[in-house]
From TrEMBL:
This is FMN dependent NADH:quinone oxidoreductase. Its EC number is 1.6.5.-, 1.7.1.17. Its cofactor is FMN. Residues 3-206 form the Flavodoxin-like fold domain. Homodimer. It catalyses: N,N-dimethyl-1,4-phenylenediamine + anthranilate + 2 NAD(+) = 2-(4-dimethylaminophenyl)diazenylbenzoate + 2 NADH + 2 H(+); 2 a quinone + NADH + H(+) = 2 a 1,4-benzosemiquinone + NAD(+). FMN binds at residues 17-19, 102-105. Quinone reductase that provides resistance to thiol-specific stress caused by electrophilic quinones. Also exhibits azoreductase activity. Catalyzes the reductive cleavage of the azo bond in aromatic azo compounds to the corresponding amines. HAMAP family: Azoreductase_type1. Keywords: Flavoprotein, FMN, NAD, Oxidoreductase. Belongs to the azoreductase type 1 family. Binds 1 FMN per subunit. It comes from Paenibacillus glycanilyticus. The gene is azoR2. SUPFAM superfamilies: Flavoproteins.
Length: 212
């Protein structure tokens, strides 16, 4: 049995979001194909993922300097403990499905905060004499990304910093298998054509779910 983290980063629902609509179809098809796997949905607009603020940085520095957890302030305790939960849950999973829109060429801020929370030395990577080493080898990931224009190829490809950002982060963790489903160009098409773009992506998602 595998554990899958289904990580969504959109404040709306599947009826209003291209990325969530495709993600919903993917995860339903995945559950049908893998009924014994555990799928955990993390809605990053509902999850509490602390940002790296003064409490977090000071709390970590105290712990590194030899202070006990009980010596931290209440704010430092709450936030550092929660970040520990977030990264431990991430490390324990076998597969990751990220679902997000492209905003301003990259991922929504809640997803950036989540990748910060999972980029912890000793958990997802470590430093060695020959440089950083990822600790999550053998795992796999998928990113479902929606965008109004086409960024996966063509003249706008150099501006794409959503999928490419996640791909680099996960490679840093040692995750080499990263697939993508792009739901793109919807803002360039008429209202009649945009649903067809979504349906094509859903068909791709259902097929991919059988072998993911």
């Amino acid at each position: 049995m595998a554990t899958v983290l289904y990580i969504t980063a959109h404040p709306l629902d599947p009826e209003q979001s291209f990325s969530l609509a495709v993600g919903k179809e993917f995860i339903e098809a995945y559950r049908q194909a893998n009924p014994t796997d555990e799928v955990i949905h993390l809605d990053l607009y509902k999850e509490h993922v602390p940002q790296f603020d003064a409490d977090v940085l000071r709390g970590w520095e105290k712990l590194r300097s030899g202070s006990s957890f009980d010596q931290l302030t209440d704010g430092e305790k709450t936030k550092t403990a929660r970040l520990e939960e977030v990264v431990d849950q991430f490390v324990a999973a076998d597969k990751y499905v990220y679902v997000s829109p492209m905003w301003n060429f990259t991922v929504p801020p809640v997803l950036k905060a989540y990748t910060d929370a999972t980029s912890i030395p000793g958990k997802t990577f470590r430093y060695t004499s020959s440089g950083p080493e990822g600790l999550l080898t053998g795992k796999k990931a998928l990113h479902i990304q929606a965008s109004g224009s086409v960024y996966s190829e063509g003249p706008l490809a150099p501006l794409e910093m959503g999928y490419s950002y996640l791909n680099k982060i996960l490679q840093f963790y040692g995750i080499e298998s990263m697939e993508a489903i792009f739901v793109e160009g919807t803002a360039l098409q008429s209202q009649e054509q945009a649903p067809a773009i979504k349906e094509k992506a859903i068909a791709h998602a259902k097929e991919l779910a059988k072998r993911f």
